[in-house]
Amino acid sequence: MTETTTHENHxxxxxxxxxxxxxxxxxCGDHGILASLQKVLAELDIxxxxxxxxxxxxxxxxxxxxxxxxxxxxxxxRAAPIATGIKIANPDLMVWMMTGDGDALAIGGNHFxxxxxxxxxxxxxxxxxxxxxxxxxxxxxxxxxxxVTKTSPYGTIEEPFRIGELTIGASGxxxxxxxxxxxxxxxEVYKETALFNGTAVVEVIQNCVIFNDGAxxxxxxxxxxxxxxxxxxxxxxxxxxxxxxxxxxxxxxKLKVIKFGENGYTEKDVLVHDAHxxxxxxxxxxxxxxxxxxxxALGVIRSIRDHTYDEAMRDQHVRIQEAxxxxxxxxxxxxxxxxxx
Length: 341
What we know:
alpha/beta, 18% strand
């Protein structure tokens, strides 16, 4: 279990700012993600030496440089195995993996799904701007079908990955989604992520101002966001809309958007969010909701406590040691036939 005891260090956000110049483009959504993480870590009040930030390659992967913690900048798509090794070698560390839609879902896709399947106690923050930013604007595994980019000049013909469905389909126990500019929601999500024991995946809807500016406007624009997003909180009804007059219900095993007062629908017909329901069916549907039929679900969608890979490994080691006649390397060296000069 990740150590979360208060140590009275009295940190503030600036304690987690490194001396490195932040080199993201002005206006990039990454700045908001960094600020939110620094604030949340200060509030947790865990000693700084307990944190490790690991990354692969991409704009998102520069984040470890800007955190005044331990960090490891890996190679393209390989952040997950590095993070896994660190966590297994030192279970007391809280390991955060910073990655992007290209880094995690293209070259790193195999590592991504297996880290989730194994339920290793790492925190995966996946920046989703639906484009390759660092390499200058090629389409990514989450780019919308038809997007014109440098590598799809006539529009991409591929169907995009939906990160939430991919995570839950890989036996994910924790999936959340937030928006780069929404610091209040991000703070809530990152705090729950930090306290979760197991693989926690957070999709951050993030804007690339240079190569895919405005890709998320329908869910971030002040005029449209309330009608196009649903903020989920455990135990609360799934109500949304600028006038709080819409909700999500379940009819014929399918989620349905309803408007209060139409066809006799009222707030009593709205589903109440249960993030802790073991059956992933509703969570999978919520994670996969997308415009124009549905609002995009934000917040913690799924949070299920389960035995982790690192716990299972430690338990296995204990069982093997207890059953073994040889308890140490010294005993091994002096076991059986030995020769002395």
